[in-house]
């Protein structure tokens, strides 16, 4: 036995196409990838420098803001205190509140630690209050360090404040203690912009947000909401001197850099959205991608053209063989190369001619067997003339039959049982129809339609039809009797009529049926509907055709649906016989 044909591991077209395509596209990919990588590296370095510079600038501005407050406080502790109240100091203190809006209140403490003056924007002013402030951390810190910046506190749970204390150059000058509202740092950070939408914010030593362009975030003092900012600060501390990618409070991807405010120990962090930061890179990548696609399209077109010239004869042969194998026997393979491939194409064309003849004969027999008894189909095929199936007017006997009580039976019985019984029922009918040389046109549910004397004429069609109906009754009643355990309650009735009918192939190109139309068809259907279990009802034309050769009983005229006048009906009364 010959080995089965093995499919090639790779087609010639694929090999040639990939080789030519890769020769153009691979250098483009290498060049594009290199440009993208180095462009990204350069842009990242530039962003590092830009964000670091912005962070340092912001830190310097905030430090200048805090040092400005410190310097203003120093003017209030230039001279030593006297024993009496000093009206000039009170005026200087009020002037400081006016000139420095960030200072909420100012207290002046003498060398002994006694509070000599207190002015406030929201509280009562006190002169010579005398409260002992010597244990106040602000006083102690200022005496030790000359300038003391306290921790940030949130008054009323929202606004950030800081205590700033400054000691005079001489102990006798005392200490100035100011409460500073850090909301005013907003003016500094809101003016900072990195690119179009970048921004800056400030965290204190405890990683709390004390300044942000959106001041409502500061006033809420929500530690959970500012967690992404603290994560950014931790990541920057882990990799100093480098812009870090992370998420801001809205969850957007940003690049961030940080600079310290050394005076107060705060951290200024500036951010820029990643989309904006790498916008030029993205634009360059899109341009590169466009050039790459254009180059790839050009390479593909060139490779396709060259490959087609090399592989077209082989592809034509492969396509032709596939078409012929799929049943398109009228297809011809046109190859004019003048070599072995052209001769091989000719052999395939000859094979297609032979297969077409064979297929035509097989299809003709298949069509005939759908409508005719097998022996009739073979007869028509041997004669080579299927015009007998064309539409024409003939004297035909139309037989209808169906089961009684089938609807109720199918409603209460398992579908598998119904299908199995119908299969046996159809087999019984087909055996009888085939034995009598009739044409079973179709099954419809539990009913069937049968033609006698069409398409192939037969002698004495009425007698043959009634004998066939008797055999059908015998076989089906025997089948129903053998299935009594199903408690089916089924019966079987037959109706037939004889007369002129139009018969032929009817349907679409995809599906054809051989059937009959005419009054005789309607009459046979109505007689079948009127027949009871075990009955065979015959019209007057068929009854007259058999004369006295079969025992028929006239049942009189019956009103049938669709007929204006009553119709004379006959019944076959002799017991059904089995056909041997």
Give a description of the structure.
The chain is α+β, with helices and mostly antiparallel strands. It is built from 15 helices and 19 strands. The protein has helices spanning 12-74, 87-99, 137-145, 186-190, 215-220, 227-238, 274-277, 279-325, 340-371, 374-383, 406-412, 415-435, 461-482, 519-530, 540-546; strands spanning 103-109, 115-120, 126-127, 147-155, 159-167, 175-181, 199-203, 209-211, 244-247, 253-261, 266-273, 392-404, 439-444, 447-452, 491-507, 512-517, 536-539, 552-558, 567-572. Strands 12, 13, 14, 15, 16, 17, 18 and 19 form an 8-stranded mixed sheet that branches. Strands 3-2-1-6-5-4 form a 6-stranded antiparallel sheet, sandwiched between helices. Strand 9 (244-247) and strand 10 (253-261) form a beta hairpin. Helix 1 packs antiparallel against helix 8, helix 9 (340-371) packs across helix 10 (374-383) and helix 12 (415-435) runs antiparallel to helix 13. It is elongated, with a radius of gyration of 53 Å. The two termini are 48 Å apart. Mean pLDDT is 81; it is low at 1-7 and 576-580.
Shape: elongated
Classify the helix fraction into a percent range. 40-55%
- The N- to C-terminal Cα distance equals 48 Å
What count of helical segments does DSSP give? 15
Q: Mean pLDDT score, rounded?
A: 81
Low-confidence stretches: 1-7, 576-580
CA radius of gyration is: 53 Å
Q: Which structural class matches the secondary elements?
A: alpha+beta
Report the portion of residues in β strands.
15-25%
Largest sheet: 8 strands, mixed
Oligomer class: single chain
Number of strands: 19
């Amino acid at each position: 036995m010959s080995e089965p044909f093995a499919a090639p591991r790779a087609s010639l077209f694929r090999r040639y196409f990939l080789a030519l395509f890769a020769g153009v596209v691979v250098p483009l990919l290498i060049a594009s990838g290199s440009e993208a990588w180095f462009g990204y590296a350069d842009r990242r370095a530039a962003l590092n420098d830009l964000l670091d510079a912005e962070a340092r600038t912001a830190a310097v501005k905030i430090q200048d803001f805090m040092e400005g407050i410190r310097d203003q406080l120093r003017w209030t502790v230039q001279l030593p205190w006297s024993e009496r109240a000093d009206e000039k100091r009170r005026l200087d203190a009020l002037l400081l509140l006016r000139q420095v809006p960030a200072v909420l209140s100012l207290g002046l403490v003498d060398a002994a630690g006694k509070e000599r003056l207190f002015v406030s924007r929201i509280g009562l002013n006190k002169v010579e209050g005398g409260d002992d402030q010597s244990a106040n951390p602000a006083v102690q810190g200022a005496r030790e360090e000359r300038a003391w910046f306290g921790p940030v506190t949130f008054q009323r749970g929202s606004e950030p404040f800081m205590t700033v204390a400054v000691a005079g150059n001489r102990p006798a000058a005392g200490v100035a203690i100011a409460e500073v509202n850090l909301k005013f740092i907003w003016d500094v950070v809101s003016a900072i912009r990195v690119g179009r939408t970048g921004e800056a914010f400030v965290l204190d030593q405890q990683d709390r947000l004390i300044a942000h362009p959106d001041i409502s975030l500061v006033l809420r003092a929500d530690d959970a909401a500012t967690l992404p900012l603290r994560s950014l600060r931790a990541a920057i501390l882990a990799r100093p001197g480098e812009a870090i990618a992370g998420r801001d409070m809205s969850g957007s991807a940003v690049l961030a850099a940080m600079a310290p405010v050394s005076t107060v120990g705060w951290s200024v962090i500036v951010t820029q959205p990643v989309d904006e930061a790498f916008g030029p890179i993205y634009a360059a990548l899109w341009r590169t991608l466009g050039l790459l696609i254009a180059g790839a399209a050009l390479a593909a077109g060139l490779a396709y053209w060259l490959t087609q010239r090399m592989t077209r004869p082989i592809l034509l042969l492969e396509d032709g063989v596939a078409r012929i194998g799929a049943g398109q026997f009228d297809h011809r393979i046109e190859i004019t190369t003048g070599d072995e491939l052209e001769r091989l194409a000719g052999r395939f064309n000859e094979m297609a001619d032979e297969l077409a003849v064979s297929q035509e004969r097989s299809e003709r027999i298949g069509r005939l067997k759908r409508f005719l008894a097998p022996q009739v189909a073979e007869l028509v095929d041997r004669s080579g003339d299927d015009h007998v199936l064309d539409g024409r007017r003939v004297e035909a006997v139309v037989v209808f039959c169906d089961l009684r009580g089938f609807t109720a039976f199918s409603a209460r019985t398992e579908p598998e049982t119904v299908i199995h019984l119908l299969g046996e029922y159809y087999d019984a009918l087909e055996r009888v129809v085939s034995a009598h040389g009739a044409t079973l046109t179709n099954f419809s549910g539990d009913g069937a339609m049968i033609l006698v004397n069409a398409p192939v004429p037969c002698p004495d069609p009425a007698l043959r039809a009634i004998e066939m109906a008797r055999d059908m009754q015998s076989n089906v009643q025997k089948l129903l009797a053998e299935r009594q355990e199903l408690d089916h309650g089924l019966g079987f009735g037959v109706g037939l009529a004889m007369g002129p009918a139009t018969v032929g192939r009817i349907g679409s190109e995809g599906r054809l049926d051989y059937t009959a139309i005419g009054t005789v068809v309607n009459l046979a259907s109505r007689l079948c509907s009127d027949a009871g279990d075990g009955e065979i009802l015959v019209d007057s034309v068929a009854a007259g055709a058999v004369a006295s050769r079969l025992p028929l009983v006239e049942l009189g005229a019956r009103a049938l649906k669709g007929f204006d006048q009553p119709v004379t009906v006959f019944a076959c009364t002799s017991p059904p016989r089995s056909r041997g």
